[in-house]
Specification:
Layout: E1 2-8, H1 13-29, H2 36-57, E2 63-69, E3 73-80, H3 101-116, E4 119-125, E5 128-136
Antiparallel strand pairs: 1-2, 2-3, 3-5, 4-5
């Protein structure tokens, strides 16, 4: 199991770098070429979301991206350090975890990611959130000599 870890300051200009690295590692891991654009877009959306949460919350901790190559799958985990409302808590907008327009943008970002990736897990708590996206891989062809 090979893992690449990226940590970057929560600045929008670093999202492009994360997308490029994710696509390169996904290609090497055996993710189908036809899916690489979806990988780039999903990582970009997840990283942009994390950057936005950090900037809005005034969080100086870096955004964390793990690129995990396993036997038959490739996963990308994008983590933020922004506190998220735990189930039942009331956000500033009055509803559970609702912070008005920011919550709408957050939901839109998660909807885009879900549309791009079949296997997505989203978890969040008071110490941060994590989006885990997984794609199947194909083993490299066997070369017979």
């Amino acid at each position: 199991m090979a893992t690449v870890e990226l940590r970057f300051s929560a600045l929008p200009e670093h999202v492009r770098t994360a997308r490029l690295v994710a696509a390169a590692v996904a290609r090497r891991a055996g993710v189908d070429e036809a899916v690489l654009d979806e990988v780039r877009l999903a990582v970009g959306e997840a990283c942009s979301r994390a950057v936005g949460l950090h900037q809005t919350g005034g969080i100086s901790a870096p955004v964390k991206v793990l690129l995990i190559e396993e036997e038959k799958q490739f996963s990308i985990e994008v983590g933020d350090a922004a506190p998220h409302a735990v189930s039942g808590e009331r956000g500033p907008g009055g509803g559970p975890g609702d912070s008005g327009g920011e919550a709408d943008e957050d939901e839109m970002g998660l909807a885009v990611i879900s549309g791009l990736v079949d296997d997505v897990e989203v978890s969040a708590g008071e110490h941060g959130g994590l989006i885990k996206m997984t794609w199947p891989t194909t083993p490299p062809p066997t070369i017979l000599v």
